[in-house]
């Protein structure tokens, strides 16, 4: 047999290396990027609150940031009433923006969105979540794609700064999602299974146009705290993210859904964590899933080599394994909870 389909290729590593099970983080955990509803959260908003709290206790998660309000005010209110109201000390719920109103409101949309965010905060929202349709799909009243640094949205960002609440922003997916879907694409299997995750240019903006506009936005609003989701949306290039952190003291990043990228560049990633220890937040973006928490703890705390970053036989974000970073305790403490504690307690 000279050729087999990639779909049935299941190589078994023959390395004999140390394997450490970490079921509890060294420090209390604030999960600063996660969800409670489907599809990412596993439907925890439909289950008893006691079961969710038990799961978080078992994982050592002291505070859980739910970003589902970024998908709509109906979800925001449902989670404020059904989850946060029952355990306000354990949850933070972020609000969002209804982009569909731009066609109706025109150039006044930015002020309207700012006013809506004020009302969400009065209702109990703890921050603002901006998801990737912004920059890829959102269009103005003329049908023109809205740039991420569009000045018509300045009232929204300024309001978040005035209220001293963070903006969690996700503007771009992995770089390979913007590349042609051919034999050179390292995420071929993933994109082949999810073709709607591919954003070729044209018709979508080039990846670096999105990132350059993102940098422009954050730099233009120094009084507003921005958290760049998924290692600043560019985990493949920590040098670029580090430069943005240097340029913008109001910029932070979380590590959610990106240990696959961080763990395949362990030397660079470890240097990144050591240098920017005060600017990195913990998060998994996988619901209250114990196995995922354990993998993240192992990645951050151990020097284990070449292990699977996912639950399946074939890792879901690329056919590679990762190595642990073995971070010092003073860095772990900041990443696990000190940095998020500081940002989320600024009201």
Number of helices: 14
CATH topology: TIM Barrel
Whole-angstrom Rg: 20 Å
Using the 3D structure, state the CATH architecture.
Answer: Alpha-Beta Barrel
Number of strands: 8
β content, as a range? Answer: 5-15%
Pattern of helices and strands: EHEHEHHEHHEHHEHHEHHEHH
State the low-pLDDT regions, or none. Answer: none
**Alpha-carbon distance between the termini?**
64 Å
* Strand-pairing-aware structural class: alpha/beta
Mean pLDDT: 96
Q: Tell me the domain tally.
A: 1
Main sheet properties? 5 strands, parallel
The neighbouring-strand order within the major sheet is 4-5-6-7-8
Return the CATH class. Answer: Alpha Beta
Question: CATH homologous superfamily, by name?
Answer: Metal-dependent hydrolases
Fraction of helical residues: 25-40%
Shape: globular
Q: Keywords, please?
A:
347 residues, alpha/beta, TIM Barrel, five-stranded parallel beta sheet, 14 helices, 8 strands, 37% helix
Structural notes for this entry:
By secondary structure, this protein is α/β, with parallel strands linked by helices. The chain has one domain: Metal-dependent hydrolases (TIM Barrel, Alpha-Beta Barrel), CATH 3.20.20.140. Helices cover about 35% and strands about 10% of the residues. It contains 14 helices and eight strands. It has helices at about 50-60, 75-80, 100-105, 110-125, 135, 155-160, 190-195, 205-220, 230, 240-245, 260, 265-275, 290-300, 330-345; strands spanning about 30-35, 60-65, 90-95, 130, 165-170, 225-230, 250-255, 280. The strands form two sheets. Strands 4-5-6-7-8 form a five-stranded parallel β-sheet. The radius of gyration is 20 Å and the shape is globular. The model has no long low-confidence stretch (mean pLDDT about 95).
């Amino acid at each position: 047999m000279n050729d087999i389909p990639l779909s049935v290729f299941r190589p078994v590593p023959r390395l004999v290396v140390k394997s450490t099970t970490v079921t509890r983080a060294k420090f209390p955990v604030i999960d600063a990027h996660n969800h409670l509803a489907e599809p990412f959260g596993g439907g925890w908003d439909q289950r008893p609150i006691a079961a969710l709290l038990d799961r978080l206790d078992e994982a050592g998660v002291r505070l859980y940031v739910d970003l589902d309000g970024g998908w709509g005010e109906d979800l925001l209110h449902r989670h404020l009433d059904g989850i946060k109201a029952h355990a306000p000390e354990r949850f933070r719920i972020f609000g969002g923006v209804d982009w569909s109103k731009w066609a109706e409101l025109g150039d006044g949309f930015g002020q309207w969105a700012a006013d809506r965010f004020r009302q969400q905060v009065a209702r109990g929202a703890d921050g603002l979540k901006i998801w990737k349709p912004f920059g890829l799909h959102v269009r103005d009243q003329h049908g023109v794609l809205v740039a991420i640094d569009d000045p018509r949205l300045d009232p929204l960002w300024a309001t978040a700064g005035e209220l001293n609440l963070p903006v969690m922003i996700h503007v771009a997916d992995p770089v390979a999602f913007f590349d042609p879907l051919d034999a050179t694409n390292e995420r071929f299997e993933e994109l082949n299974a999810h073709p709607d995750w591919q954003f070729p240019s044209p018709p979508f903006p080039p990846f670096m146009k999105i990132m350059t506009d993102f940098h422009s936005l954050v730099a233009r609003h120094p009084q507003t705290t921005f958290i760049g989701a998924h290692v600043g949306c560019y985990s493949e290039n920590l040098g670029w993210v580090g430069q943005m952190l240097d340029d913008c003291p109001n910029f932070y990043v979380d590590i959610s859904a990106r240990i696959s990228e961080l763990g395949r560049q362990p030397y660079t990633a470890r240097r990144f964590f050591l240098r920017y220890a005060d600017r990195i937040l913990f998060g998994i973006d996988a619901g209250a899933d114990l196995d995922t928490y354990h993998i993240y703890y192992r990645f951050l705390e151990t020097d284990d080599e070449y292990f699977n970053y996912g639950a399946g036989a074939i890792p879901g974000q690329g056919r590679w394994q990762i190595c642990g970073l073995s971070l010092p305790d003073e860095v772990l403490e900041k990443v696990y909870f000190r940095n998020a504690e500081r940002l989320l307690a600024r009201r």
